[in-house]
User: Which sequence fits this backbone?
């Protein structure tokens, strides 16, 4: 299993949602966006590791994609929130920021 988000959606002006594949099949949705008027970034998701308060790869992968999506983003810190994110049909699907196919498109 590749530890990279496979799909991405824009869920608000500055909110990115990433679908991270699960080793058990399916996906965990991870939302990243500004909190506190933009002072911090908050990463929202729920997975078994996060529930057990263990580190998981979703946090770093989501931040990496977010900073590729919003390279000018400035924030003081990163918070996490343990809540499941559910797919919303109003979100707009976008290429996964920073993924190899996105870089190829930019170069070409
Ligand atoms: Zn996780």
Assistant:
């Amino acid at each position: 299993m590749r530890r990279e988000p496979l799909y991405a959606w824009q869920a608000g002006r500055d909110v990115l949602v990433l679908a991270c594949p699960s080793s058990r099949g399916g996906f965990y949705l991870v939302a990243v966006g500004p909190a506190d008027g933009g002072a911090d970034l908050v990463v929202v998701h729920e997975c078994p590791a996060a529930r057990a308060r263990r580190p998981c790869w979703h946090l770093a992968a989501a931040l990496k994609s977010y900073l590729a999506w919003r390279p000018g983003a400035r924030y003081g810190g990163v918070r996490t929130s343990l809540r499941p994110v559910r797919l919303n049909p109003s979100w707009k699907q976008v290429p996964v920021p920073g993924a190899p196919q996105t870089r190829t498109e930019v170069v070409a």
The two ends are 28 Å apart (CA to CA). Residues 7-107 form one domain. The chain has three helices and six strands.
